[in-house]
Amino acid sequence: MVSVNKKFLFACAAVAAVCATTSVAQDDWRTNYTLYGTPGIIDMPSAVAPADGELSATLAMFAENWRTTFSFQVLPRLTGSFRYSHIYSYDRSFDLQYQIATEGQYRPAIAVGLRDFLGTGLYSSEFIVATKTVSPNVRVSGGLGWGRLASHNGFTNPLGALDEAFEVRPNDRSGKGGTVLSGRFFRGDAAFFGGAEFRVSDELTALVEYSSDAYNIEESRAGFDRRSPLNFGVKWQPNSTYQLGAYYLYGTDIGISATIIIDPTSSSFPSGLETAPMPVGVRAEAEGVAAAASWDTPSAQASGVETLGQVMATDGFRLLGAEVNGNTMRVRYENSTYRAEAQGLGRVARMLSHVAPTNVDTFILEPTQHGIALSAVTISRDDLEELENAPNAAALSYDRAIFGDAAGAAPMIGWDDPNPAFLWGISPYLEVSLFDGDNPARADLGLEASFQYEIQPNLVLSGAYRHRLVGNRDEIGSISPSTLPPIRREGLRYGAESGGGIENLTLTWYGRPATDLYSRVSLGYLERMFGGVSAELLWKPIDSPLALGAEVNYAIQRDFDLGFGFQDYDIVTGHVSAYYDFDNGFQAQLDVGRYLAGDIGATFRLDREFDNGWKIGAYFTLTDVPFDDFGEGSFDKGIVFEIPTDWVLGRPTRNSTATRLSSLERDGGARLRVDGRLYEIVQDGHQGTMGDQWGRYWR
């Protein structure tokens, strides 16, 4: 430890000089990702905030160290990161960084951060850092670090002037991880760090930094040789989607990194590859057209419904029923093609403008999924004709639409859908398991045969069978002991010897028992590890951001061969749930109840959903299982991604791919994995989500 005075005065002078420098804005600078996969220089952080919503994945390697980091710009100023790394063993850690001030003409950007605040504490550190663009091609950063970021040339904590407790950093690192190390925050010695980025060209950046990390753990337990606090590097980024870096580190080692960057707010196909929608049929131009003739007689109505059903089918919609009462036409349909129900709504409305009788001036559209009507949206035909080519048409049409509940009987006249009720297919599958202590990455490649038989639109029998062709997920490794029933920790044993089996085989019924109420009952082999019965009830008013649900399950553990047999473990589980849509892209969910191991507790989940269908979120579960009994990780937590297929392919489809990155899968806090839970189905057809997606109404 050294005296603070000279270094502190030098740092103050340096920061003052930086702040007094007039510079250009840093908007055209790309975020540089460090060996930690976070905004910074090489190993040290900076105060740069990536673009709102930006998602990155970084793989970095040097000496015997490697780190895989996923970072997400949760809010315009808040960055969150999850890291899986190897030092002398595998380790998981979480970071947060908040930009408390943006860069101005004279003011630097300023950020505060927590590194490994929720983990074992191997990387535990905190920092405050300032970054300033001092010329069009030079950006400098300097900061004060604690923890590992004060292990080289540290000095007495300046915060000790406020409270002497800040001068001592407790050694409360947890071998099991998973606990917030708040007792360490900004405590113990402090040290300065800093560096600069020099833009050589639009694609190439040179990097230099002074590191305050002594790498004590790596030197003592992983054979790392640290001889200098200086690091040098170059970063090559030819476009906005990836970065490649090479470094000379700590006077002894060469390091490399690769970062993939995704902007979920944009798409490679911003306009989509779908066919253009049908133009609005204007009644004054449709006089005498047979398709728009009166529906006064039963035969005319049947003919009109037949015409409408055929027209809708050409654009990926399924007509369930239609009727005309006076000057109002009500249509119930299923959108099986377009991810956004608002886009489907707009296309169906334009079809009706060609088929509906000319005396009809009001359309009531009832989108459905799984045979249950989600909402009743009333649209004026006059508004449709008036606004098609009007400026700000989307906002004006949304303001004039009326949203209501669609509980009740379907329209009187149904359509005989020619599509087959039985569908099947065979496709390849890739299943990946990450972060296992014995093997950080496992994968299987094989074939999946699936089928669906629609007994009624709301009563469906479906199933899937998988057969592994190649892979290493059958290499089970060691199963850690636990005082809890083996709910999830033996997950790799399922299908390991048999090479596959029945993934699921369920009969599911959906219903609308009353206004604002939705129901589901699922029976069969509900998931890979459990079969049984699952029943759910959801209360969700059409215009309310709040939804309440209840679910009860009787679950029986399946045999490891994924056949028809069961083991001797069964349990009744259940949860009450609250969902809230904050109307800014964020959705929160709280589930309270009994889990598969018999533990009682709650799961909190927060998602951010973008208008193009991307969804990124995080969750954690706390139950009455003590952290020691839970084992490594202390409690269940993880990150979830949902990527819409149309974002990737550009073609309209409702399919998506969901991935969960769990820090470690164990038995506590384990919930039954049932497909088709109600909230995910219902919310897309309600006013909040449709309002967010209404920009696609005219597409």
Summarize the structure.
This protein has 699 residues and is mainly β.
Commentary on this structure:
This protein is mainly β. 12% of the residues lie in helices and 42% in strands. The protein has ten helices and 33 strands. The protein has a 13-stranded antiparallel sheet with strand order 21-22-23-24-25-26-27-28-29-30-31-32-33. A twelve-stranded antiparallel barrel has the order 1-2-3-4-5-7-8-10-11-12-13-14. Strands 15, 16, 17, 18, 19 and 20 form a six-stranded mixed sheet that branches. Strand 4 (90-101) and strand 5 (109-115) form a beta hairpin. It is globular.
What labels describe this entry?
699 residues, GMP Synthetase, Chain A, domain 3, Porin, 13-stranded antiparallel beta sheet, 12-stranded antiparallel barrel, 10 helices, 33 strands, 42% strand, globular, disordered N terminus, Exopolysaccharide biosynthesis protein YbjH, signal, YbjH
Element layout with pairings:
Elements: H1 5-19, E1 55-62, E2 65-75, E3 78-86, E4 90-101, E5 109-115, E6 118-119, E7 125-135, E8 138-147, E9 179-180, E10 190-199, E11 204-210, H2 216-221, E12 230-236, E13 242-249, E14 253-262, H3 298-313, E15 317-325, E16 328-335, H4 341-355, E17 362-369, E18 372-373, E19 376-380, H5 381-387, H6 393-400, E20 402-404, E21 422-434, E22 441-456, E23 459-471, E24 500-511, E25 517-525, E26 530-539, E27 546-558, E28 566-581, E29 586-594, E30 600-609, E31 615-623, H7 627-630, E32 636-644, H8 645-649, E33 656-662, H9 678-682, H10 687-692
Parallel strand pairs: 16-17
Antiparallel strand pairs: 1-2, 1-14, 2-3, 3-4, 4-5, 5-7, 6-9, 7-8, 8-10, 10-11, 11-12, 12-13, 13-14, 15-16, 17-18, 17-19, 19-20, 21-22, 22-23, 23-24, 24-25, 25-26, 26-27, 27-28, 28-29, 29-30, 30-31, 31-32, 32-33
